[in-house]
Amino acid sequence: MLLVANAEAWPGFKTTVEQLKAGADPLTAMVEGISLVEREPKVRSVGFGGWPNMLGVMECDAAVMDGNTREVGAVGAVPNTIPVAKLAHEVMKKLPHVMLTGEGARRFATETGFSVDDVLLEDSKRVWWERLEKEMTPEQKAAFPNTPLAPLLKTITDPERVRDTTVWLAADRERGIHAATSTSGWAWKYPGRLGDSPIPGAGYYADSRYGAAACTHTGEMTMRSATARTIVLAMKLGYSLTDAVKLAVDELDELAGGFLGGVVIHAVDAHGNHQVTNFRCQGEIRYWLWEDSMPEPELRDATNA
Ligand code: GLY
């Protein structure tokens, strides 16, 4: 058994490891771990600790993918709900659909027993308004929120603001290869914006026969390149894990126009190998790894593309 997740996974990684050791279903175990990440205010890119959209509303995205069946459950731009990874799992288990968004996802959450929670932290609300205020003229401020938001796009593309996610991959010879994600998306995003975290093939993909991949940071790039699916399809076509990740990195590198930033790729293959590669993200990128030969999970450094 192998479990890989990005550095933000710290509040729940050990819980998932313990559940996997006890023989739990890998998707259920990952969703349990992610639920702890979503409830941790110190993780500033996921769930309760994340940043709101431009209107000051938290809209979270999440997904699960079962690599044995290629079933997917995803939710996007869901207001007032935690844990959204668990809600995505419910979509997979209970509906014929793959993805629910916005108010429909919230309605389904109520039907399946999720409470309506105020997900915006007081501190996030303060920082959100201070940042937005800087971009607004006195007229825009007086009219807010009834003012066009697109002219305020500098807040969305602020390099200081994270575009992170928590992404998890579990691989086991018997139990298969699976993926799960969760994020509050880009800070100050335009309302209704979906990132790559709920989009199968972009932010995550899993196929137990070949491997899985999941991405953090600039979803606008992985959605344009179908990064996660590219990696798994390349492995199906005979590429090694390293070559499959290189192909996906080259495709990201070839993008022109639009918003371009950094991406971190997490990938595993069906032979027990893993790779975490940083393409153009600033700073130190680390990830969590646990293999059943390890007494404790380890925090490791990603390689640079
Ligand atoms: N990768 C996270 C996002 O773009 O929302």
Structure in words:
By secondary structure, the protein is α+β, with helices and mostly antiparallel strands. Helix content is 30%, strand content 25%. The chain is built from 9 helices and 13 strands. It has helices spanning 13-21, 26-38, 84-94, 102-111, 122-135, 138-143, 219-225, 227-236, 241-253, and strands at residues 2-6, 59-66, 71-79, 99-101, 166-172, 176-183, 204-207, 211-217, 263-269, 274-279, 286-291, 298-301, 303-304. An 8-stranded mixed sheet has the order 4-3-2-6-5-1-11-12. β9 and β10 (274-279) form a beta hairpin. α1 (13-21) packs antiparallel against α2. The chain is globular. The structure holds glycine. Glycine is lined by residues 163, 165, 183, 185-186, 195-197, 203, 216-217, 219.
Characterize the overall form. globular
Q: Low-confidence parts, pLDDT < 50 over ≥5 residues?
A: none
Q: How many distinct beta strands?
A: 13
Structural class: alpha+beta
Assembly of the depicted chains: single chain
The major sheet is characterized as: 8 strands, mixed
Mean pLDDT: 95
